């Protein structure tokens, strides 16, 4: 525990990933329900589609299990509050006010990004899922330069670039914590391999140089993007095993 928190204090961030389809069986899911707060349980029961309910449960189990890796307390004891745009954070009466986290999930996969004293966001998408109207979506939500660059690509490369841009945009607005009030078309990404740069429309309230953006393809078909506020020291993003930490927490 001390080592993990020390890594955050030294400027690293941790990206916890969990392929839930392989390890979140009915027995563990039943135990995971016991981690939920009353509010989370109410949300869990409102899901009408079993797969959606299971994905929500897995995300909350991962978050609570991960937080308990940084300090010795039970996963069920963590308390959360929501900002005006619905982003969760540690409640005021909880400890570790410097600990920042962000969740993203799709059926079969959950990711949790953790850092200290910085804004951060993560998004995951199933990049194999067909998007028959992706150019129309890009015209509506992307910046003009992004939409034009997407149209200029060969058809075979458009879906991959679409998901790269989409996950990057989602990770950024999640890091800012103010939802779609930012406007997805007011900022643009340029992708270069596993990293990306951002630029803003005139008058946009942010500075490009304070952000680090990365893409992660090692969990195919899932594509992950992270947006992390930079500090003066170099940033290291360390991959962590979400399956191991949740299994340990659920079997205690």
Give structural attributes.
252 residues, alpha+beta, five-stranded antiparallel β-sheet, four-stranded mixed β-sheet, 9 helices, Ribosomal Protein L22, Chain A, 11 strands, 39% helix, 2 domains, single chain
Strand order of the largest sheet: 6-10-9-8-7
Number of domains: 2
Helical proportion, percent range: 25-40%
Quote the average pLDDT: 93
| Coarse morphology | globular
Radius of gyration using CA atoms only: 18 Å
Gap from first CA to last CA: 16 Å
- Helix count equals 9
What share of residues are in beta strands?
25-35%
Characterize the largest beta sheet: strand count, sense, and whether it forms a barrel: 5 strands, antiparallel
Low-confidence stretches: none
CATH class of the largest domain: Alpha Beta
Q: What is the CATH topology of the largest domain?
A: Ribosomal Protein L22, Chain A
Q: In total, how many beta strands?
A: 11
Structural class: alpha+beta
CATH architecture of the largest domain: Alpha-Beta Complex
